[in-house]
Amino acid sequence: MDCLFCKILNKEIPAQIIYEDEKVIAFNDINPQAPTHCLVIPRKHIATLNQIEDTDQELVGHMVQVAAKIADQQGFDQTGYRTVFNCNEHGGQTVYHIHLHLLGGKPMGWPPYQEKLKTAVTQ
Ligand code: 5GP
Ligand code: ZN
What we know:
Order of helices and strands: HEEEHEHEH
Bound molecules: guanosine-5'-monophosphate, zinc ion
Structural class: alpha+beta
Oligomer: single chain
CATH superfamily: HIT-like
CATH topology: HIT family, subunit A
Number of helices: 4
Helix content: 25-40%
Mean pLDDT: 94
Strand order of the largest sheet: 1-2-3-5-4
Distance between the termini: 42 Å
Radius of gyration: 15 Å
Strand content: 15-25%
CATH class: Alpha Beta
């Protein structure tokens, strides 16, 4: 299968892996948007959130719990962090193997694309 994240899982493409267990791995994002920016991905290939099945509920819950564990290990669980699943084109998804972004280590603004939205409204 021609999937970038499956290749990272199979160690065909290198990545800085920071967490691994039987269900998921986490590795640093190649283009970090915060002092810590990593991606938690399932070993199972699921293209988008739209393909999550009833039997995947525990797996997706585990991804969230692993993100929280990493936040604790990195020391920003109390100051706070952001987790994001992007879905399809409007969500900004570029890799079609679900991944949970974990961003932490600095304060982050909300909403994330406020300026773009303002421009869209005034045009
Ligand atoms: P998306 O835009 O699909 O939500 O997120 C994909 C993420 O994967 C992006 O933040 C991007 O920087 C990251 N990424 C893309 N290619 C690679 C790669 O080869 N290695 C790593 N470590 N991250 C990647
Ligand atoms: Zn995949």
